[in-house]
Amino acid sequence: MLSVVLPSYNEEKMIQKATDTISRILEEAKIPYELVFVNDGSKDGTWKEIEKAAAQNKHVVGVKFSRNFGKESAMLAGLANASGDCCAVMDCDLQHPPEVLVEMYRLWEQGYEVVEGVKRTRGKESVLHRASAGMFYKIISKAVKIDMSRASDFKLLDRKAVDAILSMPERNVFFRALSSWVGFEKTSVEFDVQERTEGESKWSTRSLIQYAVKNIVSFSTVPMQCVTVAGVLVFFMAIILGIQSLVKYFSGHAVEGFTTVILLILIIGSIIMISLGIIGYYIAKIYEEVKGRPRYLIEKRISGADDVQNKEHRQKTPPREMKAK
Ligand code: UDP
Ligand code: MG
User: Which ligand does the CA of 203 lie closest to?
Assistant: First the structure.
């Protein structure tokens, strides 16, 4: 069976559409499937829509977070709640074309264990966005040692790869890179990013910067090594300036040079502060990992298949608050 994981945050208009489109395509291709919607603490009627979809379609599973935990957590929760032999992850705004799922599934049948969706085109983006995304992927590609510039969160993973990813203890996960990192028999399919039809993108410039910094830190220690490099550079500068000042001192021109002093204080001061910031950020991340909090909290799980049984069960057992009294 193929499990399709769909993280959804404020997507009330898309749930029904996504359910219909994806199930139609998979049924036509005769692929046994389930759709795992993860409601990532939406503030609109997304959960209602998921419940509705589960009542109509027995292939729908819904997982509800207690609050917004972010897309990475939602994808992991979806994988943890999927029971398929292979699991696909895709956006529920249908920007990842569902037809490609069939292509991915066929490749999986041929024995591939990780099928990556690769963006042929990046869709509509501003110049600034494109440039900063380019820089981000350069750093990440170096860290993972795989070209990530066209990578996406649209992929299909074999049960083996899913279990490997789920068994990782780290809190800050960067799913896109982790699925490459686990290895296994890998291939890719190209797809065109579609236009969003309903709702809007959840990413602001600020959240994108946070996303980039967080993921670079979770996969690479290069920023911390930059601190060392900066230190070495400043040390060489110090030797040169040191020699120059000594020469001046002995030749009797020592009073001049206040500009140099001010510049040095400014340069070194700012380098030290930036360095402390970088190190501090890593320590903060270590702190988060050490606390070992769960990646997400699930408030409720529903499944289209046992919806009917659940209803009967609920009628028989009184709510818990009443039992306690
Ligand atoms: N998403 C989520 N949690 C969040 C933000 C987004 O689960 O905190 C989901 C969202 O519902 C969508 C997918 O992640 O299915 C991609 O989000 P979006 O379309 O806003 O990103 P874009 O396509 O613009 O990169
Ligand atoms: Mg989108």
Answer: 1
